[in-house]
Amino acid sequence: MNGTMAASSHRIMLGPLVAAIDQGTSSTRFLVFNSKTAELLSHHQVEIKQSFPKEGWVEEDPKEILQSVYECIERTCEKLTQLNIDISNIKAIGVTNQRETTLVWDKETGEPLYNAIVWLDLRTQSTVERLINKTPGRNKNHLKHKTGLPISTYFSAVKLRWLMDNVDKVHEAVVSHRAMFGTVDSWLIWCLTGGKSGGVHCTDVTNASRTMLFNIHTMDWDPELCKYFGIPMEILPRVRSSSEIYGLMKICSSRKSGALSGIPISGCLGDQSAALVGQMCFKDGQAKNTYGTGCFLLRNTGAKPVMSDHGLLTTVAYKLGRDKPACYALEGSVAIAGAVVRWLQDNLGIIGSSEELEKLAASVGTSYGCYFVPAFSGLYAPYWEPSARGIICGLTQFTNKSHLAFAALEAVCFQTREILDAMNQDSGIPLTQLQVDGGMTSNRLLMQLQADILCIPVVKPSMPETTALGAAMAAGAAEGVSVWSLNPEDLSEVTSEKFEPQINPEESEFRYARWKKAVEKSMNWETTEPVCNGNGETSIFSSVPLGFYIMGSMLMLIGAKYISGHN
């Protein structure tokens, strides 16, 4: 009896809860927070499979993504029940997601018409080249005045164009008015609010601003941009603010999580915007850097979009309510950060886990002059150079896999330094410290290296799930929910850890200059004009003579074996 009373009184003390679906490139999570203290109560995570059907192609299965969300919700609800926490206390759900990743599905059957094309994917390289060649002066920034973005493989419009041109099912569904386009947020919200039986087809301003079809000044789809890419506007989701009730959850009552049926989905932010909100960067000039699959530095620029002269993107940071003003951000995007760990693990086999990478790198404490530019998907900010490819240089007979591990961590830090420099030049006000979050921040060596290479302190919150927290805050603050106050005086104090620079600036500058030299060597490796390989397919490696390419691949494999065998 006492136990039950204690449990029920404990439940009352918790107050309203808010949940977040965090659907990232490599995993899906469902997390539940206390709206009064921002404390994380429980969560569950499921890895997502990526497939690489051809060189440069990256895909994910939309059904697997959806199933992973259901599984995470179910498991988290089980964990909450075990903790004696009443799941009917969950008052709202927010969604945050990998941005730009592109899906098309049939609104009548609810079936995806192709795999999701992931943001990292390079298949649209020749399309991008063609589009840039059509612009006056071959200018990749031709649409930047409306979109804030360069014409690049990174964004959704070119991926959607590829699907319409190359996948019969997609083309047929568009012609017969059955097609729906969306980024991952739209797919999840549509499915979770009923799918083919009345699902809500919407997106928020932050995700829309990454498609190249959205005008960041009018805050809506732009008919001229849609015409430029040949996209019919009827397939696009309705654009909403980042914090409002979009629809209600529909979950089968036989599931443990059936109790969530009827709960509003009331927050939606692209993952990098969600992290900015979760880090409480609400003032002009505040910034955060997220270390996930890629690396993303965002700086709040307030109510006005600021155009970059140094290769950064102008993006919508958030719009926290239908009648609230939009806030903008400058963004430095790096394609490969955590993905380099996965590459060392899955492709080279020199580590078994990300924890092992930190141990290996710490065992030598230096890259011994080895530099690794992981330009697997070309270079993103500040270069926007799709022809670049990954290189490892400065190798000697002394180099071993531990030095390579250290060089991989340094690469993440050097890339961050490049985008931070660009941001400081654009804003004219240098950042005095860097707020960080994301999976890789658990690597303490990486955090110390980052402080050393930037020559400013790096500040990491003790609760690393800031992306999910941002989505929960947006959901809890929505009109009609109102269980989470975003007033500055009501925001809970965040405990954090600070990493101070420990090397002298001269050494830092020397290493950074060598890095820049390595980056130059990675550029202009590929041509983007496709050449047929005999069976009608194109290859992005077609510019490299075949013998050289095969020999190079063999040498790399032998080298990798040698490195892993001699340590």
UniProtKB/TrEMBL annotation:
Q: Which Pfam families match?
A: FGGY_C, FGGY_N
Q: Does the keyword Mitochondrion apply?
A: yes
InterPro entries in the cross-refs: ATPase_NBD, Carb_kinase_FGGY, Carb_kinase_FGGY_CS, FGGY_C, FGGY_N, GK1-3_metazoan-type, Glycerol_kin
Domain Carbohydrate kinase FGGY C-terminal, which positions? 288-478
**Cross-referenced Gene3D superfamilies:** 3.30.420.40
Swiss-Prot/TrEMBL GO biological process terms: glycerol catabolic process; glycerol-3-phosphate biosynthetic process; triglyceride metabolic process
Give the UniProt subcellular location, in the record's own words: Cytoplasm; Mitochondrion outer membrane
Pathway-wise, it operates in: Polyol metabolism; glycerol degradation via glycerol kinase pathway; sn-glycerol 3-phosphate from glycerol: step 1/1
Q: Which CDD domains does this UniProt record tie to the protein? A: ASKHA_NBD_FGGY_GK1-3-like (cd07792)
**May I have one GO cellular component term?**
mitochondrial outer membrane
Classify the source by domain of life. Eukaryota
The EC number of this protein is 2.7.1.30
Q: Which UniProt keywords apply?
A: ATP-binding, Cytoplasm, Glycerol metabolism, Kinase, Membrane, Mitochondrion, Mitochondrion outer membrane, Nucleotide-binding, Transferase
Q: Which residues form the Carbohydrate kinase FGGY N-terminal domain?
A: 18-278
Which top EC class is named for this enzyme in its record? transferase
Q: Which GO-annotated molecular functions does the record name?
A: ATP binding; glycerol kinase activity
Assigned protein family:
Belongs to the FGGY kinase family.
- UniProt name for this protein: glycerol kinase
Q: Which source organism does the UniProt entry give?
A: Anabas testudineus (Climbing perch)
